[in-house]
Design a protein that fits this description.
190 residues
Length: 190
C-alpha cells in the first residue's frame, strides 16, 4: 500500500472518530476539503465535494451546535445522534478506502470508521450523563463547547497531520474501551 493510500486512511479514521463528538462538523469539514481537493474521495463519493452537500452540512452544523446548548434537548440529541455518528463515521472512512471489493470496503468502513465513531460517541454520551448527574445539567454547556472544539479540531487536524491524529484516535478508543468496559463488566458481575 502506498503512502497516499495510507494518508487517506489516516484522514478517514480521524474524521470518523470526530463524528463521535459531533455528526455534522466532520461531514462539513470533509465536504469543504473534498471541494478544495484536500480530501481524496473515491469514485461514487464525489457528491461530498458538491455545493449542495456543503450547504446541507453547514445548516446541519449550525442546528446541531445550537441544539446542544438547550437543556434536556442535549441528552435527547445524544440518543438520536448515536446511530447517525456511526453512519457518518462509516461513510467518511469508506469514501477514502483504497479497496476495490465493494463488500470488503463497506465492512471495513463499518468496523473501523463506524466503530471509532461509536466508541467516541459512547464516551461523549457518558461524559454528558455524568455532567447532568453532577451539575443538574448546568455543566452540559461546558461539555458541549468541548465537544464542538474536539470535533472541529480533530476534523481539521486530520487533514494536515493525519498520522498523528489517527494514532491519537487509536489511543483514545483503547482508553475509552478499557475505562468504561471495565465498569460495564464489573456491573454485570455484581
Amino acid at each position: 500500500m502506498d503512502k497516499e493510500a495510507l494518508t487517506a486512511i489516516a484522514i478517514g479514521i480521524g474524521l470518523s472518530a470526530s463524528c463521535g463528538f459531533r455528526v455534522s462538523i466532520p461531514m462539513l469539514v470533509a465536504s469543504i476539503a473534498a471541494k478544495a481537493g484536500i480530501f481524496p474521495v473515491n469514485e461514487g463519493f464525489q457528491w461530498l465535494a458538491g455545493w449542495p452537500a456543503i450547504f446541507c452540512f453547514s445548516a446541519a452544523t449550525v442546528a446541531e451546535i445550537l441544539a446542544y446548548y438547550i437543556p434536556v434537548v442535549d441528552n435527547l440529541l445524544d440518543t438520536i445522534t448515536t446511530p447517525f455518528a456511526v453512519i457518518a463515521g462509516t461513510l467518511l472512512l469508506t469514501s477514502v478506502l483504497p479497496i476495490n471489493n465493494g463488500l470488503l470496503k463497506w465492512i471495513t468502513g463499518i468496523l473501523f470508521g463506524g466503530g471509532a465513531a461509536a466508541v467516541v460517541q459512547g464516551g461523549s454520551v457518558l461524559t454528558r450523563l455524568a455532567s447532568t448527574k453532577l451539575t443538574g445539567g448546568t455543566g452540559n454547556s461546558v461539555v458541549a463547547t468541548g465537544e464542538h472544539a474536539a470535533a472541529a479540531g480533530t476534523s481539521v487536524l486530520s487533514l494536515f497531520i493525519p498520522f498523528l491524529v489517527a494514532a491519537l484516535v487509536i489511543v483514545l478508543v483503547f482508553f475509552i474501551i478499557s475505562k468504561f468496559g471495565k465498569r460495564l463488566f464489573a456491573r454485570k458481575q455484581a
